[in-house]
Write the structure tokens for this entry.
Amino acid sequence: MRLITLGIAILALTLSIDLSAQSNSTSDAFSMNSWFRAFKQNADAKAMHSFLVAMPKGGDLHHHLSGAGLSEWWFELASDPNKNGGYHYYTKVSFSHCEGYGSNEFGPTPQYMMFHTVSGHTWDALSDCQKSEYKRLDRLTAEQIAAFQNSIRLDKPHEGRDEFFERHWRRLGEMTANPTLMANILLKNMQAYAQENVQYLETQVNLQRATHSDGTPYTPEEALAVYEALLNSEEALETQVEVRFQYALLRFLPNAEQQLAWMYEFVDTQRQRYVGINMVGREDNDKGYPLRFLSTLREMRKRYPRIPLAIHAGESDEPNYHVRDTLLIGADRIGHGFNTITDPETLLLMRNGPYLIESNLISNLLLEYVDNFNQHPFPEYLRLGIPVALSTDDRGMWDSTLSDEFFIAVTHFNLSWDELLILVKNSISYSFLSPSDKAKQLEALEKNMSDFVAQIQSGEIPQRNSGTYLGQFICGYEPAVCE
Ligand SMILES: [Zn+2]
């Protein structure tokens, strides 16, 4: 116990020394804290947002690849076989009350869901009646294209948790089983992150459903090779965004334990790309409660060298002990940790501890865990000394960016420059990179940040217009940013 406490103390000390070194290097004649305080007072929303787009932000640690495609990207890639590995896709544009729809692992196939999308291979096997309900993506009218795109983003006041969990994912349907298309969604994320000065991405990529255009399955190794080819392409390398994967377990499935065992075996053999395992899925479905996996994880820890775990917990608007239980089953990082604040003993355990909370402010608002940002526990966690980082979760469905998360945090919670540095640094320090890769990323971050500060010190205010990446979320939430 004493050893653990010492370990935590050393970690905290290292962090504070590094950060104060960062401040000291600029504090002789110039204090970034004072400069940033004045900037906050004077900058309008647009100036603050473009400053935060330009600011080095480290990494995004909580990122579901299949939730991270902007609607425009899905349409562009899925409607063009030249860009998606030769697949055609069909989406539902009308209802004829056809009979004979079956079901798949996500439940009954969505016969009453507009813009449910299937591959050409699946479409070929439908009855004539069913076929007539679907239209090939490249044949949609402009109005249908807009509706298709809106169907996979949370853009209406009445849309919330149910629309997201029960309809968005099912609409994406078979598009997420195409590794070429998904690898290109990853490339577009990397390009967007380069634009907003993000250097590292730890994204969740699953391979078991990967399917060729003729309906035959890829092996997971073959599917991973598609991503590797993309990641080694000139376009991807040009972004200089470092990418690692986590494998995600859909926790409420009946065979989730066997899935988890398979993931351990697979990730253990692919450690150069896969750095961890996650557990996902709506937490108000009790079938995926954390302690369900205790014995399986203990068994896995007997068989394999350590694999880091980032587990969703506390994404709930009711008090429970899921964050505590998630630490018990071995989590290194907590996804959301939103209701940690309702469990005082766990909150105490987390203070200055080694477990990071991945905060996703925009996600929590849009999925109705808060009515407004003032209800969010993020500032409490940050200022109690609980390690916390900002991340985007399913940015494609919110049409948002990591800069937007920082904008919300700064404007709602009056973050100081030192607090911004803590968040940025945590997003690399608490990544699952190997120690040598992490050291490289931290060095790159330090250089990037000191260049950024030097620019300010020379009297210039770094600004980057996020241009095409100004999404619907921020433009709706703070229209002045997009004027
Ligand atoms: Zn998530």
In short: The chain has three domains: 2-45+450-482, 56-69+196-435, 71-152. The CA atoms of residues 1 and 7 lie 10 Å apart.
